Amino acid sequence: MKPLSKKQRLYLKKLSHHLKPVIIVGHSGLGENVVNEIEIALERHELIKIKIMADKDDRREMTDSLCNQTKSELINQIGQMSIVFRVSSEKPQIALPSD
After folding, report:
1. Which of 14, 46, 68, 84 has a 20 to 30 A CA-CA distance from 36?
2. Which residues contact residue 85 at a Cβ distance below 8 angstroms, ignoring those fewer than 6 apart?
3. % helix / strand / coil in the chain, to the nearest 5?
4. Is residue 48 situated within a structural domain?
5. Is residue 97 part of a domain?
6. What domain range is 72 assigned to?
7. Residue 52 has what pLDDT?
8. Which CATH number goes with the domain that contains 25?
9. Distance CA 86, CA 80 (A)
10. In a domain, 31, yes or no
11. Is residue 92 in some structural domain?
């Protein structure tokens, strides 16, 4: 997947505003089961919010690790909320604006 343009990121950020967190990651971190659930949610919804309940320094590290493991792209991170996007391999739902 090629990197998203600024226009596409802004579009996805706008779409994500009304979303509620699909996954909540506790202090125990990103276990295999949590990553699997995120994979399922990304395949189904493409754009998801994840609430990461950890220290400020650990949140960014967990988010980066999560994006690497799921081959998704971080759209935005504010406080405990991370917005992540990945095009569904089965049937894409979100039509991104052209560059």
Report:
1. 14
2. 4, 12, 42, 46, 47, 48, 72, 73, 75, 94
3. 40, 20, 35
4. yes
5. no
6. 21-85
7. 94
8. 3.30.110.60
9. 20
10. yes
11. no
